[in-house]
Amino acid sequence: MTTLLRPRYRVRPLPGRAATLLALSLLLAGAAAGPAAAQSLEVSEEVLPNGLRVLVAERHRVPRVFCAIFVGTGAAAEKSGKTGLAHLLEHMLFKGTRAIGVLDLGKDAGFIAKADTVMLEAYRLEQRARDARRRGLEPEKADVQAIERLRAEHKAIAAEQKKILRSEELWTMYLTNGGTALNASTGQDSTQYFVELPANKIELYFWLESDRLLNAVFREYYFEVDVVKEERRMRTESTPTGMVREEFGASFWGGHPYHRPVVGWMADLDVVTRQDAEDYFRLHYVPENMTAVFVGDAKPTDVFALARRYLGRLPRGTRAREAVVVPGPNPTGEKRMLAKAAAPDSVEIRWPAVATAHPDGYALDLLAEIFSGRSGRLYRRLVEEKKLALEADGSSSQSVYGGTFSVTGRPQKGVAHADLEAALLAEVAAAAEAPPEPAEWERVQNAMESRIVQGLESNQGVAFLLGRAAVAGDWREATRALERFRAVWPEDLPRVAKAYLTPSRKAVLHLVRDAAAGRGIGPGLADVGPGTPGAAPDVAKLEAAVARLEASWREVHPAARAGILERLRTAVGRLADERAKEAIEKRLQALEAKG
Fold it and tell me: Which of the four, 85, 140, 399, 567, has the lowest number of CB atoms within 10 Å?
């Protein structure tokens, strides 16, 4: 075995965990760093009396600040029968507050109460109809008629309510004050709300965000549930591989909380109520479960003072949040799935790996880098040398409660899926036998260091690094990535391969192309508009989405067409460019005329 020396590097000593100011110095060697050979990032921290953590990273290059609030809850914190609530709440927090988004608060409350009464009765009858079908019976005709009447009544209530609403008021307030990138996202572990603003508008941010956390009103709830259902249909059920990927993920994770899709199961979305959403909100959206991050032209003392004044008003939670239950990694054998879809043939082999806080995650990331890209082992050996695959890649991912390691490939015409699987496993086995050669080791280290530096180039990138590390348990880990990667020895790679990438722990997916297996809306059409109400669409992306829809209109399932058009029109309605709005609407009308 060739003995490899650890590359030389310098790491600035890190202060203790109790420090409120952390200076990160990235001292990269030679050409690997290029012009970014020395970057520094100072992060200041204050924890408010109510438990909310505030982080400020000063960067005075431009007079703007990226502002974000990370809430430590996502799909993993949901309960059986109530999936999709974390994502649904992301939508609801753009619906306004007692002060924003409404003209008459009294009338609004009345509409909300009426909608609850009507929809809870509709839910009760729909559940009775489902119970009948499970027993092989037809639902009572009176129930079916009552459901239709109640749904129509709710639609009429929503139409009247819209007359007193200003649905885009939050976005408009940010936009008119120089705000950009207003949006939110939900994952398995966290939900984050963010916007970039001029440096002199930070107090506006504190007022608006503290208001929607203190005084959120879940208006148009049942309408938004239907929006989320349509999002699920469009992004999962109507795409060629959406359901395959969802089912493979559920099988892979088994009893682990990550088996739940972030968008929720459709059966759960059929029954979750506004009260369910409010209960979830009160339980998880508490200051001790939040981290506010500010990156840009801001002084920590100023930000902390505003945080105490506004976010300090948030009351601590009154109920203890239940711990997320994570089963131990004890697979009894490999799992296999054979699926057919209107998509290219492919093979994926996936193993359960380690969580974010685990030190072996860094070695697994470097092993994935060994396999990845056109200069990686899988592409060179399986695509270029052996001509077994059209594409081949590796990936490593860590989250708060677990992680994955995968190798994937698309077989060449005439190559059996089993043969490509065997070739992928042979490369994994080879990596478990010997450390990488010096040139390969240098390549992956340079690539990883470059990626770390690139992640620090934008204010948004820094904010997400800090926020996600905070959700995982310690925001300081975001500043230690380079140190952690440089602490990995070449011999660590075969060690982690042997420890985690074993035959009994793997899950295998063989996807076989079959045009008759089902037709979806085509690649890329999931992004037909902003995923979160209130976000401004990009004209170019919107036009590209329409073009993809035009090209694949006949392949789109008829049941999905109306929903896709509605989503596109929602995005078009937010365009400021009237000429673009008119042009895109004409194209949508032409599609609609095709039937």
Answer: 140
